[in-house]
Structure formats: structure tokens, C-alpha cells
Amino acid sequence: MSASPSVSVPGSAPRVGVWLIGARGSVATTVVAGCAALTAGLHAPTGMVTETPLFAGVGLPPLASLVFGGHDTTDCALPKRAEALAEGGVLPHGLPEAVTAELAAADAEIRPGGPLPGDTRTPDELISAFTADLQDFVRRRGLTRAVVVNVASTEPAPTDTAPPPSSLYAAAALRAGCPYVNFTPSTGLDHPALASLAESAGVPWAGRDGKTGQTLLRSVLGPMFAQRALTVRAWSGTNLLGGGDGAALADPAAAAAKNAGKERVVTDTLGTAPEGETHIDDVPALGDWKTAWDHIAFDGFLDTRMVLQTTWQGCDSALAAPLVLDLARLLARAHEAGLTGPLPELAFYFKDPAGEAPSALGEQYAALAGFAERLRTGGRDLPTAGAVADGPLPAGPEDGPPAAGRGPGRTPPSGPRRPGGPGPRPVRDPGPRPVRDPGPRPVRDPGPRGEAR
Ligand SMILES: NC(=O)c1ccc[n+]([C@@H]2O[C@H](COP(=O)([O-])OP(=O)(O)OC[C@H]3O[C@@H](n4cnc5c(N)ncnc54)[C@H](O)[C@@H]3O)[C@@H](O)[C@H]2O)c1
Fold this sequence. Notes:
Blueprint: E1 16-21, H1 26-39, E2 66-72, H2 78-87, H3 95-98, H4 100-107, E3 110-112, H5 123-140, E4 145-150, H6 165-175, E5 180-182, H7 195-201, E6 204-210, H8 214-227, E7 231-241, H9 243-249, H10 252-270, E8 278-282, E9 289-299, E10 305-315, H11 316-336, E11 341-342, E12 350-352, H12 361-376
The structure holds nicotinamide-adenine-dinucleotide (NAD).
Residues 21-22, 24-27, 71-74, 113, 151-154, 165, 183-184, 209-210, 212-213, 243-245, 248, 316-317, 319-320 line the site of nicotinamide-adenine-dinucleotide.
């Protein structure tokens, strides 16, 4: 992180921007506070895959080189937001005070998002405003590049041809020549109106909707049932969560996009669609803690009926933030290496990967390992769809029908996802984590009573 009196930035490390859409939300605040905490050595990088030996020598930007900014439609300052998260046990007590300079520096780089209530700007005017904010950020802070990450509230799928706000931000990222990550189930780049812009922008992009809890587990268990030749008859799931995400997902139209991703992972890994549905309930009392319950009815030898039940209790933002930091670093490095277009090798992180990718976590990890290896060798052999965006900004988006699929203008496959992309590669055992003395640690509240972390 930069602009911090308490954190030393390596003198020669070029600075890389991380532009968060929804920059004042729980996930974004945890990203900024977490990055500052790791940089200052207050905590070990638990949960960050890019900090494992798998990524040694890959040339990822150091955490200390990341500069945060973004858009939001609310004006609650980041230090205050971080205090609220610490009170709820999401951030360790004492951390907001320890990294207050970094939070304030990021807060100073947050610009009003849109559309705001009563906003009369046209979609193209909004895209132009967002693009100008991004370009100003990159220029003013002397950044080599900036990665745009959508962590805004989940929006309902569009019902007409008009690009939703998430797509306006995605268009701005493309116009500004920035790599793009959609960590939410919202439409983002997957709108047909953005297809030609995405083709010509010359930037890499990753998938849609981060895979942090229930779906992560599903992407492990699905292949297990398939490989052991067990017949899954029904797979039902329920999620209880509160916080801003719980409130947004109380809207059935918003929850539909999320549930579709969770169910798709089951179908893709089993190769068939079992009975059962997935539900999300908003339980404000749980705050940022999520309980996800899966009930899997399956048949074994001689059609003997059996059941597996799993209960996942996690802190949503603590699960999501390390993945956002991983993705920002990976996309920045991919952009530096000249990669463009979808990166199916990052399927490991998503419910809905970009491009054709395997759906089992083991294969996704192998693909990620292959990606790390190729980045280490300078990006050789990596597929590219165009040139790196150093030229003039591409034109604005064109009109088109509403989004239906994954990736700009694509329609979803009707059957199971074909494993594709780079294919399985030998997995390198990351080995034991390097031990870092984290020094004195701010105390983390155990969270709501009775909830395991
Ligand atoms: N484990 C996880 O936490 C996880 C996993 C996958 C996906 N996600 C997704 O990440 C997103 C963020 O989750 P959260 O818990 O931080 O939610 P949150 O409600 O705390 O934060 C969302 C932020 O987005 C802002 N926002 C809303 N509309 C906006 C707009 N048009 N422009 C700019 N900003 C806007 C809100 O003001 C808020 O600050 C959600 O979409 C969620 O589904 C989270």
C-alpha cells in the first residue's frame, strides 16, 4: 500500500492500482485493511494462494505496491466502515486504528459511483465519468496499471437490453485499458453490448462470482461422487447470512443469479442435474457470518441409499478478501505479460469462470499451477486474443440484446461444462508455508456466539 507513513514501499517496485467497485463495502474494506495489515507484518497471509511457494518468482506485484481506490454510491468513510466491521468481529479489534492511515489514503481515492438516486446521466455519460475517474487515478498516482475489481452489491439480472450498472463499470474498465475481475454474480462484462469492446480492448479479464464457501466445497465434493461412481439423487442447499450481501440477496431476482452459479457447479462436476434447489435467507443478526448447509442424497452399491450433510460456517469478507488480493495481483501480472481476453486458468477462484475451464477444484488448481509456471517464464505459450492496450481508448459500447451467458455475448452451454483451457497439468505441492513472525496481533473477536469461524 502506498501513501502510508507506517508502511515502507519498496523504492523500485512500480505501483499498481486496485480499483474497487463497491469500495466502501465489507469485502472492499477488508481488502484494504487486510493488505495494510499484511504489509505491516501484523498478520500472516493466511488464505492468500499467491503468497504460497506456487507463486515464487512469478513476478506478482508486491502487496506493498498496491494502491487502492474505487467507486461507491455511499459516502461512509473507510476508517468508520472498518470500525463497524471490527465491532462486528469481522476485522480484528485494534486493526482499524493500526491501519487508519492506509484506510484514509484509500478513502481519498474513492469517487461517487452511479447511477445515484435521481441521476439523469445517460449510460454513456456514466461510462465516460467512470473512465475519467480511473484514468485520473492512474495518472495522478503514477501507476503502471490498475486492475478493476467489482465487489459492489449483487444486482438483479437485466430484464431488457439496457446494460446494468455493473456493465457500465466493466465498459469503463475496458475503455481505460484496465484488466477486469467480476467478483460478484452481477452481469459485468457478460453483456452482449460489451462483446466487441472486450474483443478490441486488449486487456485480460477473469470470471464471475468468487467461489469462497459453499460452492468451493461443492467443487470438491461433486468430483468425488462422480469419480467414486456414486449416484447423486438430490443436492439441496440453504444459506443463512446477514450484512449488506444478505440484504441485497433478499431480493429474489438478485439471489437467482447467485443460486444459479452454485447449482451450475453441481451440474458441471456431476455431469448431470440432480434434484434439489439452493436457497439464500437474509438473517441480519448473523452479520457477515454465513452458515451454508448442503444435504446430498446419494445411492451406493446395490442402490443403497445414503446421505452426506455438510455445514460451512464462515466469515464472508475474510473468505473473499484474500481472493480479491490474489486476483488483483494475477491480473496485473497477466496484463504486464501482454495477456488479453478471458483467463480460464483462474477458474479456481470463480463459480463462473471466464472461457472454457474445468469445474473440479483439483483440475482448476492444476490449471492455476500451469498459469503460474507460464507467468514465471514471461507469459510464453499463453493464449492471447489481441494486443496490449497502449493505444487510444476503444469506442463506447454498442447496443445489443440482454445478457444470457458467460463472457461477452455468449450463451450458456446447455449441458455440462467441457473441461478445456489449459487442461490438467502436474500439480506442484506448494509445501509448507514460510513461517513469518507476524509480531503483535490485534485481537479478533470470535464473532457471533456459537458460530465457528
Ligand atoms: N464470500 C463473499 O463475501 C463473497 C463471495 C462471492 C461474491 N461476493 C460478492 O461480493 C459483493 C460484495 O459483498 P459485500 O459483503 O462487500 O457487500 P456490501 O453490501 O457490504 O458492499 C457492497 C458495496 O457496493 C456498493 N454499491 C452498491 N451499488 C453500487 C453502484 N452502483 N456503484 C458502486 N457501488 C455500489 C454499496 O454501497 C456497498 O458499499 C456482493 O455482490 C457479493 O455477492 C461475496
